[in-house]
């Protein structure tokens, strides 16, 4: 199988890999680069577990070809915490019992981050819409929605 | 959180240190940073990918299997068929005396449900495994399928599973699990009203976000390390040891965080064949269900059919309850004989009824084998019972919540299966529900207690 070079930044770090043509970003991140924070739940774009942020936009890494990410800036939950300090979203998810099995959590946090990056003070409806592509089968949606709202308030407090 | 301390206050000390206080989950830091390790969060050099060839038919005889094209496909390391499996016919609960063994790891002469595994392909990449699987040619003689409980129990129905000889599981007590308490016919004879209703449910898929799977690594010590998301580590160890005729000491099962289970990861399906693949190739093997397999192949909750007949008095007392329960096991037993038994033990629900009769059947059909899911054998029964309770209340023009107070079980009541009731809290829960839902009931019900009956 032909391999193609791909180069991008992952959570601010330069990455360069040779990947099989046609391989998804999900597989490249997990199998080549070893970022296991990105989860594959359906491999068909329906569950949101593999959500990442590419150049500021929320994307499904299972439907994104790795070779299409040349030059991109990719963010994952694995790179969200600063050394010794959780991101406000991570704090809010942990404090608010917004995790159960934990499998959907990294994707949920990416969806939430994409929302807060463009809308720091979302309404409840904005939050519901933002995570509408992410399935939590432990059905913990209410604590997740609340955690995202809590994180947005924590964010605005820290700015003020 | 509000603690209602008036309930059972004479039964406990109120020096609570933990209850009522939030405690952080021990796993939440891993979850929010994406560092929690699920079974698939590891890579191994030389990893093989296992892909099953599955039956496209509900019921068919296998005339022949042609592997010649698949074997030649680039990237294929090994193809497994039934003859490679040391103990190919098994049943999960054999160690708790559920038998006979009735399910093949890989099908031999027959397939009994659409999706049944026949041939396992081991290849260097998922793609090669998929492509090779498509090149396996299976010659089928399609048979009439049995696709419902009613059809399975017709006298001339095709036999689904020859290991049983009839389309239901035979218990030591006969064709069904039975509960007999009091005299149900006498109860009906003395009742003011009789209500008989039939309730049916469809199979339900758990649909966890993380699909079922395992990764197996052959170790230099001759052992096999199996990273799995099973919910049933010891069923997996026992059954793998039986199926592979391998000493359990050679099997190192590593479980851990399960990405949603809900009972759907209790069967022993992926591990034995993946370990066999690792043994025969000497290479690590990954067998992970696709989303399609998770939805179509993994066991759902059983379909059920429940016939409930009650005798009720005008004052609200239920004096007799007869239940005929049918649990659709699909093609193989898995956990369903146990589920049907649980179902029998659960009736007549959380109510004290003097005359009870229950017949609970585990039925075989050419459908996806069903298995555990959140209170299996009980949950659908509770749905049916509570709908029946509402109908009974309407029949005698009584408030449905007050009707449940009249019949609620209390400490010391003997249940239909002869166990005395201990630690009942139904009345207290209903009192709280009455307040929370703003559904008032008469004072006499608010004064009731699970601990004692009124004088």
Automatic annotation (TrEMBL), chain A:
Protein name, entry field: (2Fe-2S)-binding protein
Pfam families xref list: Fer2, Fer2_2
Species name: Ferirhizobium litorale
2Fe-2S ferredoxin-type domain ranges (all copies): 4-80
Entry annotated with the keyword Amino-acid biosynthesis: no
Keyword Oxidoreductase: yes
CDD domains per record: fer2
SUPFAM superfamilies cross-referenced by the UniProt entry: 2Fe-2S ferredoxin-like, CO dehydrogenase ISP C-domain like
Domain of life: Bacteria
